[in-house]
Amino acid sequence: MDNKIVETAEKLFLKYGIRSISMDDISKEIGISKKTLYQSIDTKETLIYRVVKNHMKREKHAIKAILNQTTNAVEEMILISRCLLTFLKGMKPTLTYDLKKYYPNAWNLIDEEHMTFISKVMKQNIHKGIQQDVYRSTINEDVICDIYVQSILNISQKIYSNPIEIYKEHIIYHLHGIMNEKGIKYYENYQNVS
């Protein structure tokens, strides 16, 4: 039952936002009483924390699958970006704002644990790209990784009317900033990031 509650809550939060959905809405959507819901999960804050944890676990799994199936750093970056875009397309723009403002414990999971994972993935990608001679050899891997992660955090924390377009442009901007001629030629096969 716990998994069903978490999955249903995530679906509703993504579609309508966190503050718009009550525990009553979630219990009605599942078809259980509010009392039964509270026997499984004691507070909305606990539920939100579990939703974020569950989402991060799925996203990590999807990114790790991409890392295992790709050999080229440019392709890897594009596929990871497509994975993240898929999530963004179903998300209400106020979601991250609400998390940060009203549910800091859940936001800290993203800000600390998840961004550490993303930073590690980006660092590995940048190193791989330099080794494969598709990224410029003169870039500072740590600085570029920090710029990427801070930009992603910045995009996720602001309420934009079209966050998907901003993220797409960010990825194009990021790749063009680090690719060399060989990387650009490879990228031309993947011109559309979405």
Describe this structure in words.
- It is a single chain.
- By secondary structure, the protein is an all-alpha fold.
- It has ten helices and no strands.
- The chain is elongated and about 60 Å long.
Concise structural overview:
By secondary structure, the protein is mostly helical. Helices cover 77% and strands 0% of the residues. The chain has a single domain, classed as Tetracycline Repressor, domain 2.
Structural class by secondary-structure content: mainly alpha
Distance between the termini: 35 Å
- The helix-strand sequence is HHHHHHHHHH
CATH class group? Mainly Alpha
Strand content: under 5%
Biggest pleated sheet? none
> What integer value in Å does the Rg equal?
19 Å
What key phrases describe this protein's structure?
single chain; 194 residues; mainly alpha; Tetracycline Repressor, domain 2; 10 helices
What are the SSEs and their pairings?
Layout lengths: L1 H15 L6 H8 L3 H7 L3 H26 L3 H17 L5 H8 L1 H28 L9 H17 L5 H16 L2 H7 L7
